Queue: 3 jobs
Job 1
Amino acid sequence: MRLEVITGPMFSGKSEELIRRVKRSIIAGQKVQVFKPAVDTRDGVEYVSSHDERKIEAIPAASSQEVLEKLNQQTEVVGLDEIQFFDEGIIDVINELVLARYVKVIASCLNLDFRTEPFPFKDSKRTVAEVILKADSMVKLSSICTHKISNNVICGREAIFSQRMIDGKPAPYDSPTFLVGAKEFYEPRCREHHVIKRK
């Protein structure tokens, strides 16, 4: 039926926007299910939560196939949070939901990894770009660059990248792609202050 994608860097409000859209579908009287990758336990296993503490109930799924297994036949709208943490099969699951089951899918994802490359699915050469490019509609959100220019002053410009941090410094290029975390591992950065640390 329809695929809507919400994308952008860390701390840009992707989950908040997903929650907002899902709640509108509930208000409209539609049958809704929300799924999240089981690996994402940052704010509890059975909720999608935003950084401003809004939340909605969600079903954790350990694999993309589990989304189909736990799908109710009456469901009209499916919310999928953080799809970059699912396996590459989520691409086919989304296609089946939209094309074969006539379900509206609202998906959120990081568009780029900390290297500023299209976010890959684990153990795959396929990326979230494949989902984003097939969307009926796509909104790309941005954050605020929190790079410290001096003791009490941050950059404050539009941030479109996620900076991976290790011990307060940019992570090396060859660091693992998959690291579920929040402010302890990531900072939103603008073009000027995003660093790709190569050896």
Job 2
Amino acid sequence: MGLFSNFFDRFKAADFHISPNMKIKSIQSEFKNNFGLTLRVYKGKVLADPEITFAQLNKLTSKDVKTNSSDLVIKANMTISEFEKLVSDHFGITVQVANEFDTYNVNNKYTLGQASRREDVEDWVKERGFSSLDAWLESENCKTLEEWYEKNDK
């Protein structure tokens, strides 16, 4: 699965565009639709208000947000680290990629495509001695990750 998926991530058409005049919530929604992951956008060290645009964010932070930058094209074969640095360099904005449930930041070594396929979770359960995500979920008496997060969200 991984080798072919990673190969095809390189040839996919542009997966995601970020435009400086978009509202943060629109960027986050499109990111979620494209990758199934959560995009956290920060104003300094605090999460930014999703109702504002990058231009409005620029007025609320001491960091210079580059609102005149061109659109940014994101591909599934970029590592999380490359993506986060690219957004920072291009727009002057801090972002982090979290899992689909927004419960943890995905390890920067994975590509957006790998994280969207939950390869980070598969690796995590294998490191704990389980043969697959399904085997781990069974040991937790859950049928899906959604069910596990609901049971463990306190």
Job 3
Amino acid sequence: MALKGLMLPRCVGSAQRLPIPRADHPVGSCLLHCDTAAFDPCDLADEGLPVPPSVARSVHKRKADFYFGRLAARRALRTLGVVPTEVPIGEQGEPVWPAGVIGSITHSDGLAAAVVCRRGLWRGIGINVERCFTPSRLQEVRARVMNDSEHALLSTHLTLDSTFSWTETARATLLFSAKESLFKAAFSSVGRFFDFSAARVVAIHTDPDHLTLCVNEDLSAEICRGREFTAEFLMLDDDAVLTTCAWQA
């Protein structure tokens, strides 16, 4: 669903609400189709976006990712009925949301998205959008993200549906994205980075499409070994996957 009544910068082709499969609670969301090459660092000032020193010193792509991500965050807050405000970067690179709100931001090669909800409805929420990896990155990603049982599970259950061919690279991308969504959703409780091996996929379901991930180690007082999380997934087009993960204490 397109977001109406909002003027888009010249480097943003379109803005729409995210097609989040499961929305037990009111959610604000925005998906932007972006043109990184058309982005100019002056656009940050034009939008009134404060630029953290770490971003100001960075390369063009990093500045563009920050710009598009914060634009998506502003529009997501607006769809939730929250007056858009600054979303600073925390000590470990996480977005710092306004009081009473939790959320997540993601970006990948021409796409940027954000999702927000009122604090207390969920304990954490994470989102990730990922362009399918190239075949040249497959072995690297598999070694970092996927164990043998996960590879067998995804190979068996994700073969071919009516709209999308699940190649080996697409399956690896999906698993990477799902674990990234879990990391973002869990960060407010865990407060640190943790490895991809900290959780494994144990089941795949349809209607809606989602994965069940099981935590392999104690990550926090709330997130202990054996706890399961749901990561829902949706193909946005032929080479991009969207995953979301939300949980309650």
